[in-house]
Amino acid sequence: GEVIGVSQVLNKKGGPFTDEDESRLRAFTTQVAISLENSKLFDDVQNMKNYSDGMLQSMSNGVITLDDEGAIVTCNAAGLKIMSITEEEIIGLTGKEHFVDKNSWIMDQVEEVSKTQEAEITMDAELVFGEESISANTSILPLADPEGKHLGSLIMIEDISSEKRMKSTMSRYMDPGVADQLLAGGDDVLGGQDLVATLLFSDIRGFTTLTEALGAQGTVSLLNDYFTIMVDCISKEEGMLDKFIGDAIMAAFGVPISHDDDEDRAMRAAITMLTSLEDWNTERKKQGQLPVYMGIGLNTDKIVSGNIGSPKRMDFTMIGDGVNLAARL
């Protein structure tokens, strides 16, 4: 075996050491060796536990573990925060006592995982804790020992409420699919980029005459209806609405995510805008309202895009000669 220490015995009273003394010493040192090994093993297990606990507590996702009887054994700090609960309130409860009402589907999945021993993953689910509803991705996994014996279940909750709110806000300004790619791209997309894109500018012809006839409230109502129609046309082709400039629209195709057919997308959007305007004018004439006319300018050129502004206010926009030319067309 491996040598882990040395025992030394000196100066026996009553004569020399005998074979019996040596046998007793061997038995004693064997017990000492076992004790030392157990102590080292305990330290290793304790260090591993401390490491696992530390890793669990540092996670941003909520992690709840249940034993094979369905009782909640552990819950990390992120889990307590997500569920707005204290450790004393949750530890010892059964999963069915805690995940109730609109959250009861979690325990249905836990039972299914216990039977199949296969993970269950749910994306963008709704969970309700107290009076607050959150959007979350959940993963439920089986826990087993090295021999495969079922020990319980692990529930992981990733709170995506902030990300979903961000996506919802961004989707008001661009196609939801583009918003997803923009969120995934991060700083590489939002930072300055030198690229080729197709710019679209449109504005209402004779807008001053319309405003004089409609008044303030009528003008605002007309613009809201007009912009709703036009933005839908742009979004269908995955264009990015940059801004409204009075009665004008500035949009781009190929920003922040480019396609092989951005020029065609911009042209299709412009044609759809014109045909949609004709349909809208038909309805307006039936109601005795003035028709609306507009002009559209398209230009494909090299531009600079990125977050531009001051630390207090920034906008993702485009600049360059290509932008200026499209605005003049």
From TrEMBL:
Using the record's annotation, list all stretches that form the Guanylate cyclase domain: 198-329
Pinpoint the PAS domain residues: 55-92
Q: Which GO terms describe its biological process?
A: cAMP biosynthetic process; intracellular signal transduction
What InterPro entries does the record tag this protein with?
A/G_cyclase, Adenylyl/Guanylyl_Cyclase_3/4, GAF-like_dom_sf, Nucleotide_cyclase, PAS, PAS-like_dom_sf, PAS_4
| SUPFAM superfamilies for the chain | GAF domain-like (SSF55781), Nucleotide cyclase (SSF55073), PYP-like sensor domain (PAS domain) (SSF55785)
CDD domains attached here? Answer: CHD, PAS
| Pfam families (UniProt xref) | Guanylate_cyc, PAS_4
PANTHER family referenced in this protein's UniProt entry, alphabetically? ADENYLATE CYCLASE, TERMINAL-DIFFERENTIATION SPECIFIC, ADENYLATE CYCLASE, TERMINAL-DIFFERENTIATION SPECIFIC-RELATED
What protein does this entry describe? Answer: Guanylate cyclase domain-containing protein
Native organism is marine metagenome
Source species taxonomy: unclassified sequences, metagenomes, ecological metagenomes
